[in-house]
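Lab meeting tomorrow. Look over both lines:
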Amino acid sequence: MTALPPTPPSGPGRPPESAINIGGDLAPALLRRIAVLHGFGIAPPGTPCTIMMTLRATDRELQACLAEGARGYVEVESDLGLPAPALRGLTASDRLHVSVTTASCFSMAMPPILGAEMIARGWLLPDRVHDLELCLHEAVSNAVVHGNLGIRNGPGGDREAFDRFHREIHSRMTVRDYARRRVSIDISNEADRALVAVSDEGEGYQAASPDVAPDAKSGRGLRILRELADAVDVTAGGSRISMMFKR
């Protein structure tokens, strides 16, 4: 896990003045330590923050902090491992960054929450929200199952294979090294388009061919993305999927 480089504090044990303020349900000492180490300020209690930090990500908390104008939502573990330096870019108001563990992501409804927020911020036209949600669902599912859990094959074409596939998902979710890996979603707004990237911390995987048969039981995710998004790019050995949606 990549940690943000430390920034010298502005005073002994005091968070610096910063364009990025953090808040959340972390213990005050832990929140202060993160702020001092990484150059963030701390939002006063009861006020909106730039980045909401939490010990356990939930749909309700994600919706609430985004509704208050937050640009980041990050699940934090006790080892202070923070996601990649995308957080540094959240000084700009046209960025969103969500980073949660695989265990939390598996139980969250990311696509409708982020789709509604993008419409509310004027980043997405309402008639594109269905396309966005389907694409996000496919990309996040790939990040969880094929990326972080390292399950290479899909559910297959019969009931026995389907059941075996889902047993494997739940089995690996009980292994801490799998469950604590991150799924990160980065959204940026540009003049006439929104860019959405989903990344994982797995070992990468071979994206399915876009020519897979429409009636195939698995492997259709990339084809669906390319049909619904205006552009799709798979990078980092399959561990990052970027999509573009025009307005």
User: Anything to note?
Assistant: The chain has two domains: 1-93, 102-247. Residues 102-247 form a domain with the Heat Shock Protein 90 fold (CATH 3.30.565.10). The beta strands are 21-24, 41-42, 51-54, 72-75, 95-101, 182-189, 193-200, 231-235, 240-246.
